[in-house]
Design goal:
about 140 residues; mainly beta; 3-stranded antiparallel beta sheet; about 0% helix; globular
């Protein structure tokens, strides 16, 4: 997701020392390499996006061990990762086909609300969180 006109954040691996170390990275136009965002950093691949004030990064990860996706809210000022929730991501219907739903969170223009897609209620829906209810949240 673009932080501004010259900086882009994305999840990727650092394959130095023959090991994959996934993290969020900030790439700057015209600069070779990238800056690793400080911990905590989700160790899973996340669909990431900045809040309108560019202080927070939200993202959902891919389920590995279970059918749930975690919705993260990373505060880049305090380097904290608040888990907003874990939501069931798969529903098997009577035809034995799995239906998958990425959360793909998005902020409203003010940054107060975060909406996301989900099927955790048993059907596909758009859910809405009021982030103003979080202690210390600035929008």
């Amino acid at each position: 997701h673009w932080k501004n006109e010259k900086e882009l954040v994305m999840y990727g691996g650092n394959f130095s020392n023959d090991r994959a170390d996934g993290a969020l990275w900030l790439f700057t136009e015209g600069v070779t390499g990238a800056q690793r965002l400080p911990e905590p950093n989700p160790k899973k691949d996340v669909h990431c996006l900045y809040s309108p004030n560019r202080r927070y990064i939200s993202g959902d990860d891919y389920p590995k061990e279970d059918e749930y996706r975690t919705l993260h809210l990373i505060d880049t000022k305090t380097n904290t990762d608040l888990i907003l929730g874990r939501y069931r991501s798969f529903i098997s219907d009577d035809t034995n086909r799995d239906r998958r739903c990425d959360l793909h969170a998005r902020f409203d223009q003010s940054g107060r609300y975060l909406s996301f897609d989900s099927i955790h209620t048993g059907h596909r829906a758009v859910c809405l969180l009021d982030l103003a209810e979080l202690e210390g949240y600035e929008y």
